[in-house]
């Protein structure tokens, strides 16, 4: 089959753009078609398309840091994604830049031969408003519910219910519901546990709670509900970017999202990656 690839390079990053240009050349030489995001298309000789229109591609390559991959996942999933790491941490991006051309052309040759893409499915979380009509973009890392702002005077009282049973209720900066993927991100900074990526789980971590309970790990099909009171304003936020303003009292329900993210390419060694975290 003719394989169609999309490439998204971190904006304003010349190294990412140079690598995108090298990938376009290698893919076209191998008989595949390649398009790039619009910002990259303005900098290199390649066909630019909006990132959200890459959902018709067989594979999308994200060149940048974890933030770029989270952005690409939001725009193109369920299309399989390969992450090339140009960032500092790069937990989600297993491919080193010097290997990118070889790894991408090998994967594209496999897709051409088999018509299939091999990848690992990463679960996401879905947050919806109870009695309010909104749903956030699915979260690959975490859903955070917090008060007006982080820090003194900005918190709220948040009750956490797990499949209908009350687990904790406290004044806090917020509460974080994370996937195993997100365990190494914001969850870790707030004292939540590391969860190995092969584990199916959802993590619930309070943020600077006055009366804290230990972080809780539950099985993925659990319904977590967060009821916010004692604040004029609060927010529900998916992966740090997609946010919904709440007018407390308000309840947010967090459940498994229907579509996972499919990550293609070699899997980063989890324990080696931990050295990169602060
Ligand atoms: N105090 C904190 O640790 C904190 C605060 C806000 C957001 N975040 C994280 O940033 C994410 C949004 O990313 P962004 O790029 O838009 O914001 P950003 O640019 O502020 O990135 C924050 C940092 O989180 C790292 N990161 C993201 N996902 C990770 C993961 N799964 N494992 C390990 N590190 C990871 C990134 O490499 C970056 O260094 C959110 O999902 C949240 O997890 C962390
Ligand atoms: N090609 C692009 N087109 C549009 N938006 C982009 C593009 N590349 C990056 N972005 C925006 O930039 C954000 C992430 O990039 P950012 O530079 O903040 O972090 P990063 O990829 O984690 O890199 P680093 O590790 O260097 O911080 C995305 O959420 C997205 O909004």
TrEMBL record:
Q: Which GO terms describe its cellular component?
A: cytoplasm
What molecular functions are annotated in GO for this chain?
ATP binding; metal ion binding; NAD+ kinase activity
Reading the lineage from the top rank, the first entry is: Archaea
Q: What does the record give as cofactor? A: a divalent metal cation
Q: Which family does the UniProt entry place this protein in?
A: Belongs to the NAD kinase family.
Q: Which HAMAP family match?
A: NAD_kinase
Query: What protein name does the entry list?
Result: NAD kinase
Q: Which source organism does the UniProt entry give?
A: Natrinema pellirubrum (strain DSM 15624 / CIP 106293 / JCM 10476 / NCIMB 786 / 157)
Q: Which gene encodes it?
A: nadK
